[in-house]
Amino acid sequence: MTQPGPFRVRAHAKVNLALRVGAVQADGYHPLRTVFQSLALHDTLEIRPKRGPFALTCDDPGVPIDGRNLVTRAAFGLWAALGRSGAPGGVAVHLTKHIPMQAGLGGGSADAAAALAALARVWTPRGPRVDLAPIAARLGSDVPYFLVGGAALGLGRGDELFPLVDLPAFFVVLALPGFGVPTADAYRWFDEDSEAGCAATLSAGSIRAWRGLKLDLSNDLEGPVTRRHPVIASIRRVLNESGAAASAMTGSGSAVFGLFATRTGARRAARAVAEAGCAAILTRTVDRRTFQRVHFSFASSSPRHA
Ligand code: C5P
Question: How far is the CA of 276 from the centre of ligand 1 (A)?
Answer without folding.
Answer: 32
